[in-house]
Every structure is written in structure tokens, then in C-alpha cells.
Amino acid sequence: MCPIAKSWTARVPRTLTSAEHPGTAVEWDGLLYEVREAEPQADGGMRYALAPWEERHVVRRAERYDALTEEIRAGDRRDRRRDVARWRLSILFAPVLGLLPGETQKKMERDFGAPAIAMTIASALPLFLVGFLGIFGALARLARAGDVLPVWIAPPAPIAVYLFIESALRLGSAVAAGDPMGILLAELIAAFLAKPAETRKTPPAGPDLEERCDRELFGVLEPVLALLPRGEQDVLVRRFGFDAVRRGRATAAVLLALAVLNTVLSVSAFGSRDSVAAGIFWSLPALYLAVEQIVRWRAFARGTPAGSVLGILVRPFARPLLG
After folding, report:
1. Helix (H) or strand (E) holding 318
2. Sign of the four-CA dihedral 287, 293, 296, 298
3. Order of strands, edge to edge, in the sheet holding 31-40?
4. Contact at 8 Å (CB) between 218 and 102?
5. DSSP result, 188-235
6. Number of CB atoms found within 10 A of residue 62's CB
7. Tell me, what's the pLDDT at 120?
8. Percent of the chain at pLDDT above 70?
9. What angle do CA 27, 29, 35 make, to 5 degrees?
10. Are 250 and 177 in contact (CB under 8 A)?
11. Longest dimension (CA), the chain
12. Average pLDDT value over all residues in the chain
């Protein structure tokens, strides 16, 4: 009797409508046996009944039964149990693990099936809401409505704007582009640590090191490179295989959502003549961005990349990739 069930199957006898199928072939001490019976036990084990293999049957696959093979099987079972435990923990701690760099989340998904996209969403969505509430609270104070929300829900305006924009980009990367993404600080630290020690101490001295550094920079900036003009995106496509259309859709979705939200908040802040003027002033760039994203979406529908006026903010960081 085996304390843990194996993948062995018992013989299926012949019936009036089906042919006989031999059980699993087991090699034991140089001899070949057939699994005739496999009976589950009350303690979770399995009782196997073996008989010498009949030569009239064809051996399609034989299982070995010895100390080494059983040790390997036991190790595989331990690995599976460990992976299941890690998978459950990844779901439980998704809001925290989703802050890790995107490549780390992908590795976790490859190693034990962690839901990388879900982890990014679970970590970005609460920060997105906190940023939104912070912006709403700041606009309420501008409209002389006082502190309508407590500080622990609505952080100061600079922090709120940062959290809102970063989380919106992460949500767009996960939902629209299907690519997990951590917080900016984690992504920058991961890119720095990925460099060999010698490249951190001295400038790159050869084309291989330069290419490696460029690829690391590309990995960090990839979520926003679709804001660059079309010609510069074509360079990135040739050099790094940049998926310009998929990334463009993600940035367009995020910018369109931000433009609509800005308009809604501006209208909600109308409380005096000054706030009306300010609301109209801030609605103009939001309206431009909204129209721009609609135009970009039409280009994406044709399978061509399209940049944004915000690409001017990305170009100084991306200049090494365009040379």
C-alpha cells in the first residue's frame, strides 16, 4: 500500500461495448508489472495490486518504482504543495505584492501561478481612490467648502495628484495593455539593481553594456513611450520590439479618463465667480486632451501608432533610446 496516491491507473476489463485496457506498466527490480487494481484507503493512501505484465499487451509507457524515483515524486509533491501555498498567499497579499516591479510580478506568475494582473489592480485601485478623494478635497477647499474629508482619506494635493496619476497609469497598463506594473519607486530600484556592479561604478565601456542599459531604461519607460511622436515610436519598434498600438491604447484610456474627471471636478468646484473662471481655464486643456485621445484611438483602430502632446515630457528621459 502507498501512503500517497500515484498517477497509476488500474486495468479496465473488457465489456460488450469496449475493449480491454491494461493498467499502468510499472518497472520494478528489472521486471515489468501491470497495475491490476487501485483501491483508495480511508487514510488517503492507495492500495495497488500488481501482476506480471502480459506480453500480449503493448507497453506504451512504463513507470519506474524504486527509491530514487519515489524520492523524486515526493519532491514534486512537496513543490506542488508549496506552489499552492504561495499562490494562496499571493491572492491574500495582492494589494501589497502588486506594488512590486512588473517583472517581479511576472516571475511570480511563471513560478507558481500568482495572478500578476489582479495583483497590480488590487494595489493600484485603492491608491487611485485615495488620490481621487485628495483631489476632490483640495477642490472643495478652493471652493471654500472647508475640509469635507478627513486627512487620512484625502491626502494633501501634491500627494493626491501623484497617487492619482501613477495609479491611473498602472491601472491602464494592467487593464488595457495586460501588463503588470509596480509603483515608480519599485520600478526604478529594480532597474538599478538589475545593472551589473561594474556598470554602476563605471560608465558603460562597450556596445553590449550600452545595449543592456538601454533595454533596462526601455523597461522602465515603456508604459509612457506611446506618448512620443509616431516617428520616434517607429524607432523603438525596430530597436526593442515596442508594441506601440497596445501601449498607446493604455495611455489613451488613462488620459481620456483623467480629462473627463478633470472636467467633472472643475464643474463641481463652481461656487463663485473666481472658481468659475478657474474651472473654465482648467477645462480647456482637459478638453484638448479628450479630443486628442479620440483621434489617437482612431489611429489605433487602423493599426498605426499615435503620439500625444505630452510626449514632450517623456522625450528628455527617452532620448538615449532614440539614438
Report:
1. helix 311-322
2. negative
3. 46-52, 31-40, 25-28, 62-64
4. no
5. HHHHHHHS-HHHHHS---SHHHHHHHHHHHHHHHGGGGGGS-HHHHHH
6. 13
7. 94
8. 84
9. 35
10. yes
11. 97
12. 81
31-40/25-28 β-pairing: antiparallel
Instruction: Output the nine-digit C-alpha cell for 21.
Output: 485496457
Question: Residue ranges of the domains in the chain?
Answer: 1-65, 83-201, 227-323
Average pLDDT over residues 248-256: 85
Distance between CA atoms of 5 and 56, rounded to whole angstroms?
28
Task: Give the pLDDT band of residue 123 (cuts 50, 70, 90).
Answer: very high
DSSP for 55-68 reads: TTS--S-EEE-SHH
Q: Taking the chain, what is the end-to-end CA distance rounded to the nearest angstrom?
A: 68
Is the pTM for the entire model greater than 0.85?
A: no
Residue 281 or 88, more confident: 88
Sign of torsion over alpha carbons 171, 172, 176, 179? negative
In the chain, the amino acid numbered 279 is G
Please tell me the distance from the alpha carbon of residue 275 to that of residue 322, in angstroms, as a whole number: 43
Cell of 223: 508604459
H/E element holding 52? strand 46-52
Which cell goes with 141? Answer: 477647499
The x, y and z cell numbers of residue 54, run together, are 502480459
Of 92-101, 164-173, 204-213, 296-305, give the lowest mean pLDDT range.
Answer: 204-213
* Rounded Cα distance, 88 and 106, in Å: 16
Bridge partners (DSSP) listed for residue 46? 2, 40
3-state secondary structure of 26: strand
Taking the CA atoms of 319, 321, 322 and 323 in sequence, report the sign of the dihedral they define: positive
The secondary structure element, H or E, covering residue 247 is helix 244-268
